[in-house]
Specification:
alpha/beta, 25% helix
């Protein structure tokens, strides 16, 4: 695997593995990089995810994506959806942003999407521009209600905390099918049409929660209609020397790439997936494309009785739609996801 030298701040030489590079709208994605030399502990980078995340030997963490906050707003006339922020768990500060269309009719009940942002479990937020805008567009075009979850991030909160937070958030949402205090959910959400969705690591979370539901974990009156996995972050063993350093970093207690939380292909329980429909979105130039297609084949070959389909975008890379939302292919992806959310069960 060839090494390519580059330099970061403080003139630290860093080596990026060539075959871990991707570009989306001119942005470099690198699954990891390792500092070879350091002048001081303060500036030694022990782990880096492209231009988005750095961890230093002295314990400092820097995030360069997902730190901006788009304010929540209610039907201002300049937005496509109304939003409000809610605190789900005061102890952990787990929160969410709820989206409803501006065009709601009285007594109208809409499909409900619970969405999990990507970011390799390391960065990202429902409140940043990229995810706020994407979910707003989904809500306005598909005419659905959405709850976008802010789970706690690694490495301060290593996996499985992201899974645990997300399950707790899903249970909080599902509780509104009975008696809940959040009026936007009780008034506008149809709990007979509940979907999970996410991109990259968020898609991994959505898969794991659907499996957890299928294995009998209690969601009260809610049964999941479907899950939408956009450019999912799955892994599998690809030879004795293959290591996913990102997964090992965010989940230090993992058993490795045979861990079913990141590798559904070795999970004998896959046939228990707790939903009726699955949409897998892949991108032709995404390094994770093959795993998305493998998920499709593995799920089809299991004893799961639902419907699964793939939507592929040609000539594009990982999560391109977040960085180029107005391009024709991003619009086509959005349209396909909207169509999936509006299927009649």
């Amino acid at each position: 695997m060839p090494l390519s030298p580059t330099r970061l701040s403080h003139n630290i030489p860093v080596y990026l593995l060539e075959d871990s590079k991707q570009h989306a709208n001119g942005v470099l994605f690198a699954l990891f990089s390792i500092a070879i030399h350091h002048p001081t502990m303060e500036t030694q980078i022990v782990f880096q995810f492209g231009p988005f995340f750095r961890a230093y030997k002295d314990g400092r963490i820097e995030r360069f994506f997902g730190r901006d906050i788009v304010p929540a707003s209610t039907n201002t006339g300049t937005t496509t959806a109304s939003t409000k922020d809610v605190l789900i768990e005061p102890k952990t500060r787990m929160s969410a942003r709820i989206f409803i269309p501006n065009s709601l009719s009285p007594n109208q009940k809409l499909p409900l999407l619970v969405y999990f942002h990507g970011g390799a479990f390391l960065f990202g937020s429902p409140f940043c521009a990229e995810y706020h805008n994407f979910v707003s567009s989904l809500v306005a075009q598909a005419n659905v209600v959405a709850v976008s979850i802010q789970y706690r991030l690694a490495p301060e909160n290593p996996v499985p905390i992201a899974y645990e937070d997300s399950w707790a958030a899903l249970k909080w949402v599902a509780a509104h099918a009975g008696v809940g205090h959040e009026s936007w959910l009780t008034d506008y959400a149809d709990f007979g049409r509940v979907f999970l969705g996410g991109d990259s690591a968020g898609a991994t979370i959505a898969h794991n929660l659907a499996l957890q539901a299928g294995l009998g974990e209690d969601l009260g009156e809610v049964k999941l209609s479907g899950i939408c996995l956009i450019h999912p972050y799955f892994e599998r063993e690809e030879g004795p020397d293959y290591v996913d350093k990102c997964w090992m970093y965010v989940c230090p207690t993992t058993s490795g790439l045979n861990d079913t939380r990141i590798n559904p292909f070795v999970d004998s329980r896959l046939c228990m997936l707790g939903c009726d429909k699955v949409l897998i979105c892949t991108a032709e130039k995404d390094d994770l494309r093959g795993k998305g297609l493998c998920y499709y084949e593995t799920l089809k070959e299991s004893r799961w009785v639902g419907e699964v389909e793939v939507f592929e975008t040609e000539g594009e890379e990982h999560v391109f739609h977040l960085f180029k939302p107005d391009c024709d292919k991003a619009v086509a992806l959005l349209n396909r996801v909207c169509s999936f959310l509006n299927q009649i069960s």
